[in-house]
Amino acid sequence: GIPDPEGSGLHLYLNANSAMTIGEVVEESRNNGNRLTDFILDSHIHKVSPRLHLLSAPLSPEKADMITGQDIAGLIKMLKKRYDFIVLDSATVLNEVTLTAFDKSDKLFILIDDELASIKNAGQTLQLLKKLNYNEDKIDFLVNRFSSKKALKDEILEKTLTRKPYASIPLSDKVSESFKEGYDLVEKNAKDPAV
User: Fold this and answer.
1) What order do you get walking across the sheet with 2-3 strand by strand?
2) What confidence tens digit (pLDDT) does each residue in 81-123 have?
3) Cystine design at 23: which of 58, 75, 128, 182 (Cβ 3.0–4.6 Å)?
4) Where does the chain show beta strands of DSSP type E?
5) Could you give the CA distance from residue 45 to residue 53 in angstroms, rounded to a whole number?
6) What does the DSSP assignment read for 68-110?
């Protein structure tokens, strides 16, 4: 399952447009005495495919602003009972919601690309998270849209990030195509290198 608390636009990429979002989940659970039920959650989750479910970001800033860290903590607790893996696609801003999500996460992956500025920002984020007492072993890096033609040398990555990235997601035209056409790349083209 993927809760998208702060509006990364995953619902657009996955062709999962719905007025029923995480904002409505929070609103309905508050109207239910601050109790999140299976019924509330089930009525808001979009089943993109049998193996991929999405809880979309709020459609308005007002709905996003009403979500608290406590709401995210409760949602994650409930989702952990239902799913083997939960991927939280968070904003780059460190606020109460993202920090609560980080606290409840088993692993944090900071996405980077092959650009030096991205690597530098990721290194700064790591230092900030360490200052906030996050265990460095919990944090790793993923290189997104990796291309061997323009890849930065491992020495540069290790100097800035203090380690090699955990993994690299290869650049693939099929990823962009799946976003534009709104299909699940894993279901349609499981042998694509990005999958």
Assistant:
1) 2-3, 52-55, 46-49
2) 999 999 888 877 788 998 999 999 999 999 888 788 888 889 8
3) 58
4) 2-3, 46-49, 52-55, 108-112, 139-146, 167-170
5) 6
6) -HHHHHHHHHHHHHH-S-------SS--HHHHHHHHH-S-EEE
Separation of first and last alpha carbons in the chain: 17
For residue 143, give both structure tokens.
Answer: 């290189």
Could you tell me which of 74, 77, 68 has the C-alpha nearest to residue 99?
68
Q: Are 78 and 1 in contact (CB under 8 A)?
A: no
- Total number of residues shown for the chain: 195
Quick one: the chain helix, strand, coil %, rounded to 5? Answer: 45, 15, 40
Question: Residue 171 corresponds to which amino acid?
Answer: L
- pTM reported for the whole predicted model: 0.76
Structure tokens at 138: 């919990």
**What is the spatial distance between Cα 195 and Cα 186, in angstroms, rounded to a whole number?**
6
Q: Give the three-state DSSP class for 47.
A: strand
